Amino acid sequence: MKLGKxxxxxxxxxxxxxxILGILIQKVFPDDNLRDSILKFNDxxxxxxxxxxxxxxxxxxxxxxxxxxxxxxDPHSVYIPESQMESVEDSFKGDFEGIxxxxxxxxxxLTVVSPISGGPxxxxxxxxxxxxxxIDDKSSIGLNDDEVRSKLxxxxxTKVSITITRFGTMSSIRYEITRxxxxxxxxxSHFMYNSETGYLSLSRFSETTYDEVNKSLADLKxxxxxxxxxxxxxNPGGLLNQAVDISNLFITDNKKIVYTKGRCSEFNExxxxxxxxxxxxxxxVVLVNSGNASASEIVAGAMQDWDRAxxxxxxxxxxxxxxxxxxLTDNSALRLTIARYxxxxxxxxxxxxxxxxxxxxxxxxxxxSDEKSGDNIEHTAEKxxxxxxFKTAGGHTxxxxxxxxxxxxxxxxxxxxxxxxxxxxxVFYQFVLNYLDDNKKKIDAEYGNKINxxxxxxxxxxxxxxxxxxxxxxxxxxxSEKDFQQDKDYISARLKxxxxxxxxxxxxxxxxxxxxxxxFQKGITLFNESRELTKSK
Length: 537
Description:
Strand content: 15-25%
Distance between the termini: 56 Å
Shape: globular
Strand order of the largest sheet: 10-11-12-15-16-22-19
CATH architecture of the largest domain: Alpha-Beta Complex
CATH superfamily of the largest domain: 2-enoyl-CoA Hydratase, Chain A, domain 1
């Protein structure tokens, strides 16, 4: 629907959409005849459009009405405007079309964080820290994120020119880049942490996730992997079928992985392991936290229910609702909850939302837990819980109705206000950009491609830490000695990780941060327990 159509045709379209929505969500109108309710809405809309004292934007009225209606359902049923559909669809695809850079806007200047592997910018030699001054001969200074994307993205085969400045070069450099399909990776990083332990970080479940994970695990196996840390932390989920396929890499023999139940029987489905699991005997520790939702909770829940892995970290978000997307006539969409999903033992993962005021409170409550850090293999941390009890394949008690609670609870320490401000204003990255102007060649000469040596031997000197504090103050971050001492190790690790990412991309970033990551460090000590757990089933 576009502005400028006649009121009559617009009202007809709205009435049609209303009928469709009404059929889908009859429970919104429990006390009225459905047809009368739709006619009532149409009357209010028509009277408002015809008689309201000022001219009205009918599109905004309808959008507000739809959002108001959905707010009476659950936190995950949403209306998606046409303008947002492309970015929503991109999040589930494994690629997009553009020049292939990760970027940030620093002091109004478009700055390359990293060229994306396999993209045209990497092939042409763009580097982290390059500052893009023009796009197609027009200044890029002051553009926001959406404006940058609209200018740099485009159909494969089309060209865009950029002008950059780079530290160490006297003049600007002009590139003409041919846009291409850019892979959006689900596997952020995979590497051998030591001679036996593989590490794999999985950030989402998109169309390419299974293929990426399968390839990464094969690579780790070829390097001698005998046990695996599967890091799902902060993975918000994605495609259900990909979660099933990932689980099937570790779970075999037609075992149930997840099932769904809805009011309409057509949405009742059951998913089981259908292929031979190549890693069915591999000891696995899965890392989770409150950023885990949906598909990532399916994987963690299935692994826990079958005693296939030890779950370590903090309780997950608790999103166990299944949405179906209905495309509307103007290319906007309704994403409507049509079922709930359950783990193999019968646990509902969805957290209770009935008594919360609104979505803000729902999201704010995520991750709040009274469970203390420690061994929770028998899940005694929840012993006073009103949640329903279930049993794993090995007879261990687990609880439903509120996310996945780990077998070993390891709560990460909260960051101070000072460190939070440093992160919010992107001070770490800005400081490292300046630091590398003077030290990049020295670091490259000393460590080359030897990331393990960098992790083991590189550290910031006291003078450099003071330089960072002064730099932060110049950016308006007030120094707090108490907060700094509390987070000193984290601050140093974060700065070091920013440098590592410049030289070794995401593998460098994760490799450094894992050294001070209390959940990971606990996880790598638990493989004997993971083996015993698997034997107990």
